[in-house]
Design goal:
Length: 117
């Protein structure tokens, strides 16, 4: 079973993503900060990260750089409400950049595609 780490500071979204992605057959772990995400990556074998950018403490782009230093092959989907970060070179390190939506079909499709590669 593929393991997905969801990094999201909004509790309601963490719960929603956990439920929806679990129904897709993934094991889902959720954390609310970049620091927690990096710690989880050190402890567990994670196949893909769904990463918000605006987080308390370390932001998602800083966390992304740290994550990829530890595991260059890690698949990362940036999932944010802000399109303007797409111009930040750091965001280009991610495998995909999605704008949050109440319709999770694009997120699910992107995850499926990346995990099948």
């Amino acid at each position: 079973m593929k393991r997905i780490l969801v990094v999201e500071d909004e509790e309601s979204l963490r719960l929603l993503y956990q439920q929806e992605l679990s129904e897709e057959g993934y094991e889902v772990i959720t954390v609310e900060s970049g620091e927690e995400a990096i710690k989880k990556l050190e402890e567990d074998n994670i196949d893909l990260v769904v990463l918000d950018i605006r987080l308390t403490g370390m932001n998602g782009l800083e966390a992304l750089e740290e994550m990829l230093l530890k595991n260059r092959n890690l698949k990362v989907v940036i999932n944010t409400a802000y399109a303007n970060y797409k111009d930040d070179f750091s965001s280009w390190l991610a495998d995909a950049y999605l704008i949050k939506s109440s319709d999770l079909s694009e997120l699910k499709q992107t995850i499926r595609g990346l995990l099948e590669q």
